[in-house]
Amino acid sequence: MEAESKNIVRKIIHIDMDAFYAAVEQRDYPEYRGKPLVVGGSPEGRGVVATASYEARKFGIKSAMTSKKAQQLCPYAIFVRPRFDAYKEVSRRIREIFSRYTDLIEPLSLDEAYLDVTEDKLNIGSAITIAEQIKQAIKDELNLTASAGVSINKFTAKIASDMNKPDGLTFIGPSKMEKFMEKLPVEKFFGVGKVTAEKMKRQGLHTGLDLKNQTEQRLMQLFGKSGRFFYNIVRGIDHRPVQPHQEIKSISAEDTFSYDLDKGEELDEWLIQIAKSAFKRLQHYQIYGRTLTLKIKFEDFKQITRSISFPTPINELEQVLDTSKMLLANTDLDGKKVRLLGISFSNFGEIRVRDRFDGYQQTLFPEMR
């Protein structure tokens, strides 16, 4: 059955709402329209940016940026508190639109999802037509715009949805898949963060073609299990199915170093980068666990973990950095060199968790952003 499923040519759509939080605010409050709007944080420099309008993005303001930095980039930016109840309600209505076409919907967050329309409910047959209809319905019924990527697998569909934002639709078909992947810069590969991209470039790997020219064994030596994924994806191979109602058990980030580390300063520098990557993923899903685990793999491939749990969710970058550094500092490395560091979050608790964000209380929804 598994082999048979791998031979199916799927029709996958990735829908990504455009500047979702900010777009909802600008829709509901006309005075924000056409202005640089920042959702999350404050002009006093507290908290972080949840999202920014396209007017604010022109100044370089991005999600997960500190509000202090955002305010420096655009002193007259408007800061507003997130209204997660409003965003969740809009997201529910977006899901209703999706469900007209398929039940195979995998939400990644409040504002994005994968849809498998290989067999759609309305027998339309064309994934491009379905994506066009979904985009139009979102525009007509919710007065918001979405971008769509259409392809034969999840990886390429997600990349495609980001290519012509806002309000874009990009199709990458089987005949163009490998050529597209070969030209793609490594930092554009979904799942390749800043640290991994820098490591790739140090190895002379700048594009998908560079990755394609490596053996699977070599990529796994450099990047662990992710190496096999890179080996396959540059060839357009991604058999991951769209998984409705997927429960998130943990969120993590890790890196295997190009050479084993033994200097405290180098370990600290890498730990900071990995902690930032892991925290960014938390923000992407808007779920905050109570347990942080530090993973250390030594030069002899032996592995240890160190964990700490808190009574309330870990929801600030500073807490992640301080906790990670503390766990590393209190771990006896016994003179061994370190091959890999990783940070993971777990113990997400109930579906609805009370969380602290930006100096005030709000409700977060782990199943979506």
TrEMBL record:
Cofactor(s), by name: Mg(2+)
Gene3D superfamilies (UniProt xref): 3.30.70.270, 3.40.1170.60, 5' to 3' exonuclease, C-terminal subdomain, DNA polymerase, Y-family, little finger domain
Active site: 112
EC assignment: 2.7.7.7
Binding positions for Mg(2+) per the UniProt entry: 16, 111
GO cellular component, one term: cytosol
The record's free-text note on cofactor binding: Binds 2 magnesium ions per subunit.
Reaction(s) catalysed (UniProt annotation): DNA(n) + a 2'-deoxyribonucleoside 5'-triphosphate = DNA(n+1) + diphosphate
Single GO biological process annotation from the record: SOS response
InterPro entries reported for this sequence: DNA/RNA_pol_sf, DNA_pol_Y-fam_lit_finger_sf, DNA_pol_Y-fam_little_finger, DNA_polymerase-Y, DNApol_IV, IMS_HHH_1, Rev_trsase/Diguanyl_cyclase, UmuC
Source organism, top-level taxon: Bacteria
Enzyme class: transferase
UmuC domain sequence ranges: 12-193
Pfam families, per database record: IMS, IMS_C, IMS_HHH_1
Molecular function per GO: damaged DNA binding; DNA-directed DNA polymerase activity; magnesium ion binding
Principal location class: cytoplasm
Site (Substrate discrimination): 21
Subcellular location: Cytoplasm
UniProt cross-references to SUPFAM superfamilies, sorted A to Z: DNA/RNA polymerases (SSF56672), Lesion bypass DNA polymerase (Y-family), little finger domain (SSF100879)
Record key words, sorted: Cytoplasm, DNA damage, DNA repair, DNA replication, DNA-binding, DNA-directed DNA polymerase, Magnesium, Metal-binding, Mutator protein, Nucleotidyltransferase, Transferase
Protein purpose: Poorly processive, error-prone DNA polymerase involved in untargeted mutagenesis. Copies undamaged DNA at stalled replication forks, which arise in vivo from mismatched or misaligned primer ends. These misaligned primers can be extended by PolIV. Exhibits no 3'-5' exonuclease (proofreading) activity. May be involved in translesional synthesis, in conjunction with the beta clamp from PolIII.
Subunit structure as annotated in this protein's UniProt entry: Monomer.
Family membership noted in the UniProt record: Belongs to the DNA polymerase type-Y family.
Protein name as annotated: DNA polymerase IV
Lineage: Bacteria, Pseudomonadati, Bacteroidota, Sphingobacteriia, Sphingobacteriales
